[in-house]
Structure formats: structure tokens, C-alpha cells
Amino acid sequence: MSSPPPAAGPRIRTVPAGEDRERLVCPDCGYIAYENPKIIVGSVVTDADGRILMCRRAIEPRRGFWTLPAGYMELGESCEEGAAREAWEEARAQIAIDALLAVYSLPRIDQVQLIYRARLTAPTVAAGPESLEVALFAWEEIPWSSLAFPSVAWALNDHRARLGQSAFAPAVAPPEPPLGL
Q: What CATH code is assigned to 38-172?
């Protein structure tokens, strides 16, 4: 007598009972694979002179373009821990988180970005494995035409708009333009 083939896991896209949208479901055991947005954590990091830490990407997407230290949050860490880890991984920067600067909800790319305001706690920075180089930029030196993502510009502008404020509501992403514009 032969044994049944092993279950192949979630492979049928259907609306499970009690749900309101299609999900991948395993027809053998009923397991539902939930696909949820990715959480990005990062920070606008400044030094004692107010210069902003930026990283030139060594990886795709947008290799060679400038960004803030940011990336995917890991399981088992707080949002703040993730932002500090990303600053270390990308720029070998030791930082202290001051406040949540912005929450950018980006359903078009299935992301929620939590961007913090932070400051360097050690004077040196260096490129980590995901950065070609890192630099501290005065506002007028920021390479605006070479920013990797729109959210980098949003965060920089939101940071500038809140300079000197110790208490503020986090910024949100600007509305997306209608398709075709």
C-alpha cells in the first residue's frame, strides 16, 4: 500500500470562510498563508553640527543612489532596535533615537515605513556591507537628484519641518498622484 503524497502547502488562492479577501490556502490541511505588509524601520540621523547621515546603496534596488539608513524590521526586535540596527549595518553608526518622525503607509508596494529622528552618539561612521559609501551632508549638500526613493525626500523634508520641536505628531506619506500622472 502506497502512502499519500506529501502535502504541498498553500497553493490555492481562494477566499477562506470568515475572510473577506483571497489568500493562499493549503487544500490538504486548510492552512492559510497570510501575506502582510513589510515593516521598514529607519532614521534621519544627525551629528552635533546638524549634518544628516546618508548611505549610497551597494545593493539593488537603486544601487548607487543615496538613502537614509533603513531596512526591514526583524522578528524579535522593537521598531527602535531595528532602526538602530539598520544604522549600524549600513553606516557603522551608533545612534540614539529621539522620536518617531514619520509613518509612511505605502499600500502600492506593501510597506509601512517607520522613520525616526536620531542622533549620532559616536563621531565615526563607515560604509557597512550594503553601502558603497556613507557621508554626513549639510542641508544644502544633500544629493537630491540622486535619492533612491521618494520616501527619503519625504523624511528629509519632514525632519526639516520639525527642527526645534520636541513634541510633534509623526508625518504621513503625501497622497499618491492618480494613475497616469
A: 3.90.79.10
